[in-house]
Automatic annotation (TrEMBL):
PROSITE patterns in the cross-refs: ARGE_DAPE_CPG2_1 (PS00758)
Domain Peptidase M20 dimerisation: 220-306
InterPro entries named among the record's database cross-references: ArgE/DapE, ArgE/DapE_CS, Bact_exopeptidase_dim_dom, Peptidase_M20, Peptidase_M20_dimer, Peptidase_M20A
Organism annotation: Lentilactobacillus parabuchneri
Catalyzed reaction equations: N-succinyl-(2S,6S)-2,6-diaminopimelate + H2O = (2S,6S)-2,6-diaminopimelate + succinate
Protein name in UniProt: Probable succinyl-diaminopimelate desuccinylase
EC number(s) recorded for this UniProt protein: 3.5.1.18
Family designation: Belongs to the peptidase M20A family.
Pathway participation: Amino-acid biosynthesis; L-lysine biosynthesis via DAP pathway; LL-2,6-diaminopimelate from (S)-tetrahydrodipicolinate (succinylase route): step 3/3
UniProtKB keywords: Cobalt, Hydrolase, Metal-binding, Zinc
NCBIfam families: DapE-ArgE (TIGR01910), PRK08596.1 (NF006370)
Superkingdom as given in the UniProt entry: Bacteria
């Protein structure tokens, strides 16, 4: 059987295979929105996994999308560690006119690779599939199970990874290969919510004078105007959090409350009898969704009770959801890193061996599916090629040398971790 050094040598010697894989992945137009366009790329990935000796399973998702799981069974899985690698195949939407190259064709300009998804995150997916292929070509048999998830929906807050983990897929350690610029990253959490104000009555616009004039006599309110009370309450809570909360690895004030979208009213002939505010709330890794949503609700309700009309018509709340597209809601749980976990320590050793220096351990300023592993109590880390500046950008790019180094690290880690006994 080939050694780890022979595997790393093969990574370097067969670079064209890596680029061919990445070019093929990019050629699938899997933008989200509109989404519902991943059946073809998932079929291609299933074929790649099967060729590399993986058993595969496809899980129905939304119409036009599906989830893929794979496993290369270890020779002694009871005694050796299992590993799960996770990535998403959906990519951010594009404006073709703003690109200098074809976004769905890999273009190489020296060390720079261009194409939609090279950084977020088809570069990482290509690395995984490339290493799987090399393991098979070299006849490397791993004692521990090697598992893989190709999911859909990360770009629109859809529950692809959540679905597979909820179904019981697990491992001793997981790596989410999303954009982290080669850093080992945890993340804070994010949840969206709707705050609704609703009047018990609908009034014609002609009644406005009676609502706002002294002595008018009509006890009524404009819900769009009353939403100002809610927004001001959120601003006060956001400032208070920024002053009083902190977490290592995050700049102060990262726990924000963003009033992102508002809708209300019928048309100009009516007083708006209903208004809805869509908010996005970020929180730290040591906080949970229930406590955060409770704090927001208490702040808004207190402000509403101080208003003479709202106190009798209190706002209502709706939190989270499984899709920004389907039900206008999302949740990304937080992920705390456990630096003492054997998986983190082994990954750090593999990284240092390949790169010649220790990795940077930090917290992501964004969110990815890595938080779902923390939610289901699976030790995990977000570790991938590409920079946040390039994710979702026009002319999205990635350093080829970084992609190659990432691939070496992943290859070394797969070999090291799946050869490590479970009690180590």
């Amino acid at each position: 059987m080939a050694t780890k050094q022979q595997l790393l040598q093969a990574v370097d010697e067969n670079q064209d295979q890596l680029l061919t894989l990445l070019d093929r992945l990019i050629s699938f137009e899997t933008t989200s929105p509109p989404a519902r366009n991943t059946i073809a790329i998932q079929k291609f990935i299933v074929e790649q996994l099967a060729t590399a000796g993986f058993e595969t399973k496809q899980t129905p998702f939304y119409q036009g999308d599906e989830l893929v799981s794979g496993q290369k069974a270890g020779s002694d899985p009871e005694r050796y560690h299992s590993l799960l690698l996770n990535g998403h195949v959906d990519v951010a939407t594009i404006d073709r006119d703003s690109w200098d190259t074809d976004p769905f064709k890999l273009t190489r300009q020296g060390d720079v690779l261009l194409g939609r998804g090279v950084s977020d995150m088809k570069g990482g997916m290509a690395s995984f599939l490339y290493v799987f292929s090399l393991l098979h070509q070299l006849g490397i048999e791993l004692p521990g199970d090697l598992r893989f998830q190709s999911v859909v929906g990360e770009e629109a807050g859809e529950a692809g990874t959540k679905t597979l983990l909820k179904n019981g897929e697990t491992a001793d350690f997981a790596v989410v290969g999303d954009t982290s610029n080669m850093n080992f990253q945890g993340q804070g959490g994010v949840i969206t919510g709707w705050i609704t104000l609703k009047s018990p009555h609908i009034y014609h616009d002609g009644n406005r004078a009676a609502m706002i004039s002294t002595g008018g006599g009509l006890e009524a309110a404009n819900m769009i105007e009353k939403m100002v009370v809610v927004i001001q309450a959120l601003e006060k809570l956001e400032r208070y959090w920024g002053i009083t909360k902190h977490y290592p690895g995050f700049a102060p004030g990262i726990d924000t409350i963003n009033p992102a979208y508002i809708e209300g009213g019928l048309h100009p002939a009516y007083i708006p009898s209903e208004a809805k505010l869509w908010i996005t709330v970020h929180f730290y890794p040591d906080e949970n969704v229930d406590d955060i949503t409770k704090a927001v609700e208490e702040q808004v309700i207190a402000a509403a009770k101080a208003d003479p009309w709202l106190r009798d018509n209190l706002p209502t709340f709706s939190w989270g959801g499984d899709s920004l597209l389907a039900d206008k809601g999302e949740v990304f749980p937080s992920l705390e890193l456990d630096s003492d976990h054997p998986g983190m320590q082994t990954l750090e050793q593999s990284y240092t061996e390949v790169a010649g220096h220790a990795p940077t351990i930090s917290m992501s300023p964004s969110v990815s599916d890595s938080g779902w592993f923390g939610y289901y109590h699976i030790p995990a880390v977000d570790f991938g090629p590409g920079t946040m500046e390039q994710a979702h950008s026009d002319n999205e790019s990635l350093s080829f040398q970084q992609l190659l180094e990432y691939t070496r690290v992943i290859a070394a880690f797969i070999f090291d971790w799946c050869h490590l006994k479970g009690d180590q």
